[in-house]
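Researcher: Good morning. I'm working through a list of sequences from a screen, and I'd like to move beyond sequence-only analysis. For each chain I'm collecting a predicted structure so we can compare shapes side by side. This is the next one on the list. No need for commentary yet; just the structure.
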Amino acid sequence: MVRAGSTAHDQPSDALDFYCDALTALSRHDVPFLVGTIPHVKRLADAFRAASRPVVYVAHILKLDYSDAAFPFWRLGLQPGAGNSTHCVEGTWGAEIIDELKPCQDEHLVAKKGFGSFANTQLDTVLRNLGVTTCVVTGVTTCDCVSNTVRGGVEHNYRTILVSDAVAEVSRETHEGELKTMSRVFADVKTTDEVLAMLGR
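Model: Good morning. Structure tokens for this chain:
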């Protein structure tokens, strides 16, 4: 029997804040598309809980000086002490999971320092201890954190399902391109409704 776990991945407050509020002025970014993932992720998390399947959260949580950051934060315009100097910093609102998707008591929240959820984290240990063999991946953004997490899951021999309407990118064009790449080799790409139907079997 396949034991599926939902990885409600990477929707800390600052991830959406950074990609939405800070980029609203830039017309090339599809803010409603990013925010539109929230109801789908919530439906999935609620359904997994109802089916007694694990829900595991992963969030970017960094030191104030970014000394533990394992991604090129400077390419995103993030500099310690300048601009949004608290982006995903531990102990701040920005490192918390958004209110609509808060973890329930006893659900795991894995802290990561880079784009991929498996790189230098306890995620693999947590999933194996929970008996998970299939990861259902959600979150933002498709081409960065989500894609790196899917690839990391494959390298750890997990079957991976990427939920197409529960992930998003700053542009729909790049999102669609990444979904095609993911479906070619790395993941089964399904909608929320399709995953819920599989869960009910």
